């Protein structure tokens, strides 16, 4: 059955705001959840992922969940533990208890951030590459993927874990030319993740069909995802500004880019 009512956690954030704009066109009714209130959305649930009662109510009656809420940059371990690790566990427990069958988990390239960028001619990075988190943030995404696997194997709750590259209106660095996920392609990918049959726990990379792609989109395409965008249109300008990536520069050597050397911090 095609999911109709979808809980969108992290609905106030950057990606959540983009998806609030784009997903209704696919026929979804979105229920919104975020610790931060959302202007103009009086029915949005303003609650923290620590609030188990609120989560239980939020998932009651939905067909699926897109889980975007959480700290989206590096932070002290205790904060990551509370929002991303315990918060994701609380949400999965609520979903299991309420019989929700399909989750889409916003994982990140930072779950495998210390994986070296493939040199020219080397194979693209497969989804089966071992976890190599580059931060406590990336570690929480590795955890989320494993939690999703457990909830499939043990409880039959299905998940598509999307290792998102960089989802913004435009790529803003040369690294992002390889991992950019356009907002339109993000909506296409989430729609595919919600509607594909029998996903069990499937891990996919989340990016557009970029000319400079580092990873293998086969498992994403197998869900029915057909990316329409390519970051290459931004390449000339970004390369003129910053130069090409230098594999000897530790900031450029790995998938996680600067997260491996001086990770951007969540603004407390
Ligand atoms: P964001 O930081 O703009 O939004 C995150 C939202 O989660 C915020 O609105 C925040 O209020 C909410 N939140 C944080 N902790 C919470 C808690 N304990 N309880 C309830 N709500 C909480 O992040 P963005 O860019 O929208 O990313 C969304 C998700 O996708 C995140 O999980 C992020 O890790 C993941 N992701 C995003 C990428 C991107 O390029 N935008 C790349 C890779 C992963
Ligand atoms: C992420 O996981 C972050 O949430 C996002 O803000 C970007 O920094 C992205 O990765 C990236 O690697 O560019």
From TrEMBL:
<dbReference type="GO" id="GO:0016491">
    <property type="term" value="F:oxidoreductase activity"/>
</dbReference>
<dbReference type="InterPro" id="IPR001509">
    <property type="entry name" value="Epimerase_deHydtase"/>
</dbReference>
<feature type="domain" description="NAD-dependent epimerase/dehydratase">
    <location>
        <begin position="6"/>
        <end position="166"/>
    </location>
</feature>
<feature type="region of interest" description="Disordered">
    <location>
        <begin position="243"/>
        <end position="268"/>
    </location>
</feature>
<keyword id="KW-0560">Oxidoreductase</keyword>
<keyword id="KW-0520">NAD</keyword>
<dbReference type="InterPro" id="IPR036291">
    <property type="entry name" value="NAD(P)-bd_dom_sf"/>
</dbReference>
<dbReference type="Pfam" id="PF01370">
    <property type="entry name" value="Epimerase"/>
</dbReference>
<protein>
    <submittedName>
        <fullName>NAD-dependent dehydratase</fullName>
    </submittedName>
</protein>
<comment type="similarity">
    <text>Belongs to the NAD(P)-dependent epimerase/dehydratase family.</text>
</comment>
